[in-house]
Amino acid sequence: MFIERPPWFYRKLFPGSVWRLPAEEPCVYITFDDGPNAATTPRLLRVLDQLAVPATFFCVGDNVRRYPEAYRAILASGHTVGNHTHHHIRGFRLPASDYMADVRLAAKLIDSPLFRPPHGRLTPAQQAALRAAGYRLIMFDVVTRDYSPRLTPDDVFHNATHYARNGSLIVFHDSPKAAPRMFDALPRVVTWLRTAGYTFRRLEAPPPFSPRTQEL
Predict the structure, then answer these.
(1) CB 135 within 8 A of CB 100
(2) Catalytic residue list
(3) Are 117 and 58 a contacting pair, CB within 8 Å?
(4) DSSP labels for 9-63?
(5) Phi, psi torsion values for 114, nearest 5 degrees
(6) 131-142 pLDDT per residue, tens
(7) Inter-residue contact 120 to 19 (CB < 8 Å)
(8) Cα gap 14→154, rounded to integer Å
(9) Which of 187, 199, 197, 192 is nearest to 46 (CA)?
C-alpha cells in the first residue's frame, strides 16, 4: 500500500506539491510517465482515443529528442504534457544545480509548467529550485505499478481500481517495460471507473489550481 498510495508522512516531505485534486463531481486524472517512444506511444494514443479518455504525459526530454513524431502526436491528440527531466534522473543523487540543468535541457523540448520527478524523489533544495523556476510539482495519488514484471495485469487493475478516489492522479507508464501490463489493464480500469461514476480529466497547463488546495 505504501507504494500504491503514498502515505501522508511521505507527502509531507513535498510541501505544496499536488497529489490529488478536489472536485465536486467524481473524476480522476490518468497520467503516463517515461514516454514518448516509437514502440508504445502510437498504440497508446489509439487506445486513449477509442476510450475517449484525455490524459497527461510526463515526458523524458531525451525521448522527445529521439521520437519527436510521437511527441507531436501526443499534443495533436489533445493531451497535455509535463517535464520528467531529460535523462530520467533520480533526485537525492545530484545537487540542485545539476538537477536543474537536466530539467532545463528537457524544457528546450517540452513546453510545460508541469513537472513530475522520476521515482517521486526530490531533495528540499531541488524542490525550491523547481518552484523558483515556475514549475508546479505534480506527484501522484495512485501508482498502478504497471512497470513491475512481478505483477500481473490483474494486479495492476486491482491497484488502480482499489486505490482510486475522487480527484486521484493515477500513474501508468508509456514504456515497453510496462506495456504488457498497461495495455491489458488500462481499458478495464477505464471501464470500471466509468461504470463507478468517474469522469476523466487531463491536467491543464498552466493548471487552474493552487498547490494549497491539495488533499492528503
Answers:
(1) no
(2) 33, 173
(3) no
(4) HHHTTSTT-BSB---SS-EEEEEEES---TTTHHHHHHHHHHHT---EEEE-HHH
(5) -90, 135
(6) 999 999 999 999
(7) no
(8) 31
(9) 187
